[in-house]
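Holo model, S-adenosylmethionine. Inputs:
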Amino acid sequence: MRDSSILPGKSLGKQTEESFGIYIHIPYCLQRCTYCDFATYVHTEIMPSQKYIELVKKELSLNKKVFPFQQLNTLYFGGGTPSLLPAEQIVDLITSLKQNDYVLSKNAEVTIEINPATIDERKINAYLENGINRFSVGAQSFSDRLLKMVHREHNAQQTIETLKLLESYKLNYSFDILFALPTQTLEELRRDLDIASTFNMTHASPYCLTVPEGHPLSKDRPLDIEQIEMFQIIHQTLVQQGFYRYEISNYAKPGYESRHNMLYWTDQPFWGLGLSAHSYSKHTPWGTRFWNPSNINLYEKELSQRSVSDSFPLNENNSEILGISQSLTDFCYTSLRLSRGLSWSELESKFGASTLEKIHSISKPLVDQQLLQLKDRCYSLTDKGVFISNQIFEKFTFLKDDFKSDLT
Ligand SMILES: C[S@@+](CC[C@H](N)C(=O)[O-])C[C@H]1O[C@@H](n2cnc3c(N)ncnc32)[C@H](O)[C@@H]1O
Ligand code: SF4
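Output:
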């Protein structure tokens, strides 16, 4: 067993303008959880994982010049369940990145999502030896009743054993909690948090169950007022334990914020490889988003038609070249999700002084209603505002017509 000395964390510097990261999607799961609509398959209903890894490697070598960066500040294996694959296949992808001239920066954050009962010491050793230094554990709940109800494969005891294994290596890990499940009680949630508090995670992501109307899990959910109480209980418990909310659904011990997810929220470029993966580049004046198909057969077919290129084969079905209105909307939404908020100076330098004025006129009434606060020339959600964040974000939705006068 080894004691990892390469943990990212307090020594990591502030996110810089040049940050760049790669996301690799691994669409394999033991089963399909009832609530999940991510692009992922039961492992027996998709091609063997080695074949999928070869496809991702092909995508990497075909498009490696799409982004001008060779240095990775972050690398993230998400899913799906990356830990379900033999560790050698994850290592194969890391090796392939290196063979394609990608270099992990000195303090790179390299994360893998792991599900309970899918890892062992051998896998952990292989991950650590190849630079993985952050683990995101899909714990969700310690209630066997609720885990069964949403068709999770693991039970609470297996989650506890997985967490103990990570602790025995003194690893840097994050923890996903799912709440507001049908019939879930406040006592059950408190119990989840009590058990969680016996572990030393550095990061926690509480997710409120989100399902569309008519979904089998949309019945018997806690009332809105109870869901708010659940969120408050989670918030208070985590804050008491030394976490702070740096993003609406993410808490960290100081210095342990997810640097990869920060790329998404701070207008930084990233490349997504694999099924359904999304990318963001700043090649065009207001940025471009592009994405891969989310059906495995289409992904395979599309790749077979791609050739070596230093530009992604953009078309109207797989990309969006942003205009100023969409770019500003995205910038406001993502910035307001963060506790540090929407910075006047960043807004002005990207969108100009007249746009900053527009933002002031939208924000001032919200500050008066104590839904936003102004601190260090940044607007951010108040505790009250967090609970109606979607309604607040709507006010920062911009259309092309909002910029007509600026363009003439
Ligand atoms: C897509 S999963 C991948 C990680 C891992 N496979 C797992 O299940 O823990 C990432 C996170 O999204 C959460 N998630 C997926 N669907 C959700 C939904 N409908 N509402 C809330 N959270 C959801 C999962 O619970 C998990 O914590
Ligand atoms: S294990 Fe994770 S990715 Fe797979 S179906 Fe369940 S929630 Fe979705």
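Confidence is low (pLDDT under 50) at residues 1-16. Residues 324-407 form a domain with the Arc Repressor Mutant, subunit A fold (CATH 1.10.10).
Archived with the compound record.
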